[in-house]
Design brief:
Structural class: mainly alpha
Helix content: over 70%
Order of helices and strands: HHHHHHHHHHHHHHHH
Number of helices: 16
Radius of gyration: 27 Å
Amino acid sequence: IGKSYFYQSNYEGAKLNLRESIRVAQEEGQERTEDEARLWLGRALAANGQGEEAANTLRESIDREGARARWTSQMRLALAQIHVQDQRWAEAASARVEGIPRVDNGDLAARAQFLLGQVYEALGEYDQAAEAYAQVRRYRPLYALRYASALNPALALGLGGGQTAASLGLLRDMLRDDNNFSTRAELEVARARVLVAAQRPADARDVLLELLYEDEGQNVGQMRGQALYRLGEVYRDGFDDYAQAAAYLDSAATSLRAPTQRRSELTPQALLDIDQEAEVYVGFADAARRVAEYDSLLELGQLDDDTFRARIFAIQEERQLAAAQEEARQARLRN
């Protein structure tokens, strides 16, 4: 009953029934039931926002005389999750390292190993993170977790660890794997991000432009907004081109939805405040255009009549060409 309440997000009901279960199990000497109830009580307390009480409950249960390893290992993993929520990374890593070897559930062990990689990544231990992610495959997880355990070390090494060659090599291997055909767009965006981190904005721009506009074999789909956003970043940070950055960030804002979770629940990869960022750089671009126009007016005022007419004609042609190019770009985005 306590577990049922937990799955219904009725944590008060879950706590009440689980505490009663622990009491009855102690009276009847049912140690296995008591261990399991203690695990679920810790989970219910944590889910209810009572992290400190949950951690104390789990520590007490782990240290309890006669507690079975099957349950204490899962308690350590639950305790590690609380440490992750509190951003106590060292304690989280220690709890997971102690808990994983005794977990007899392959799926649970794989997810715990994956989270250990994330913890090491948060600690800045990128080589250890990559090794932890690699260990996930030992447990033969389902495709989604296997895929993430291959992508995350590539990003960790490339974005945080400064190991560009190793990161690009891992991504290249994933792109060659036919099993990843449906996620090729995500992998290309990841490749662009690694290139940006390696101070290669021109290469990153080429990857993203090809993904968005040239490679019809790519299934961009839900990654279009991400690709547009990253391309805006490239123009903003790599080329100081705020006009182009504003155009792509504005397009990205129409494609991406801001996350609905609390910020504490989001990963470091989440794109936040997209609308506000687009608005800021649209403003920068407008200001830059106005300054350029004022400079042009000052320059035009110093020209003789023939040169003035020739310059005006050239400006009109440039604007017509720019308008045609923008119309074509918007048509591609709509398609």
